[in-house]
Design goal:
The structure is a single chain. The protein has 143 residues and is of the alpha+beta class. It has one domain: Aldehyde Oxidoreductase, domain 3 (Alpha-Beta Complex), CATH 3.90.1170. The chain has three helices and nine strands, in the order E-H-E-E-E-H-E-E-E-H-E-E. Strands 3, 4, 6, 8 and 9 form a five-stranded antiparallel β-sheet that branches. The chain has a four-stranded mixed β-sheet with strand order 1-5-7-2, sandwiched between helices. It is elongated and about 50 Å long.
Length: 143
Amino acid sequence: MYSIVDHPINIEELLGCIRDDSAGASLLFLGTVRDHNDRTKVAGIYYEAYVKMAKQAIAKIEKETLNSWKLKRFAAVHRIGHLKVGDISVAIAVSSEHRNEAFEAGRYAIDRIKSEVPIWKKERTTTGNDSWVEGTPLGWDNY
């Protein structure tokens, strides 16, 4: 399951999508809007997407993730529109028999989503100097 939404992400619904009685591990990753970037105070973020292409890219990531690890289920949701500090912008959930697969698959999925899905973000600063933020290359650890 994957989607692009313009409303708050429902975590309970997401966890329901990955529920499986044969899974011994469920992993949930939440990306949230933080109050700063480097030394700049952030008031919020505006996310924009090419929705059709973004859904296709996430579908590809879902398929690759399911094929690369022994997962039971996969779910990913990215929010677009205006978000404030503390809002959830992206959520990844996976279930597997064992925790190692869940951790590895979740990390892989979020790294791929941040580097390949056509979703752009514009930081709204407290000083009014809003700016589009450059994407995160695959493999960066400081996201």
